[in-house]
Specification:
The structure is a single chain. This protein is mainly α. It has a single domain, classed as 434 Repressor (Amino-terminal Domain). The protein contains five helices and no strands. It is globular. The mean pLDDT is 92.
């Protein structure tokens, strides 16, 4: 049960990353450059083929000019 909740929260955070990226008009390539990640990492995260680590979530949040806590708050959990 806890694992299911964790996956739901993770998916909502990824959804928030996607929404924010699109809101800012950033491509995968541009976001990757801002976050210090590879473009394919962004694609894999958004397509749920790779689970982002906490550090990657922090890097993405900084690149998207938002706080990770704000994204977590949007999950409603």
């Amino acid at each position: 049960m806890k694992e299911k909740l964790a996956i739901q929260i993770q998916n909502k955070v990824i959804d928030a990353f996607i929404a924010r990226r699109k809101e800012l008009g950033l491509s995968h390539e541009k976001l990757a450059a801002l976050a210090g990640l590879h473009r394919t990492a962004i694609s894999h995260i958004e397509n749920r083929r790779r689970n982002p680590t906490f550090l990657v979530c922090l890097k993405l949040s900084a690149a998207l000019d938002c706080r990770l806590s704000e994204l977590l708050a949007k999950t409603g959990k």
